[in-house]
Amino acid sequence: MAAATSSSPKSVHDFTVKDAKGNEVDLSIYKGKVLLIVNVASQCGLTNSNYTELAQLYQKYKDHGFEILAFPCNQFGNQEPGSNEEIVQFACTRFKAEYPIFDKVSTFSLFFGVLTPGFSLDQ
Fold it and tell me: Catalytic amino acids?
């Protein structure tokens, strides 16, 4: 995950991230929308309720400027061990997820400001 500009990021819209297929996504495309940025996991005790409620929220509000940006994370108890392809298959088949699913992240990097170009979960 990297900042879209060379200066310090000021908002979520200043970042470029990778989607689950490895494509770069400039989050500025979501300017003007209400965003729910959420970490997800397929083997968490709350997986069924979380994915079900995310799908319901998205269906209800997607036509009103609402977007869910789902970031898989394996950081908490190894509850998301799957590959990006497996994660997308799971979310889209089992829970009919229509919102974007991104590359696995470290929530520590995402939410505690350790956002450096070239950051890898393997570090």
Answer: 44
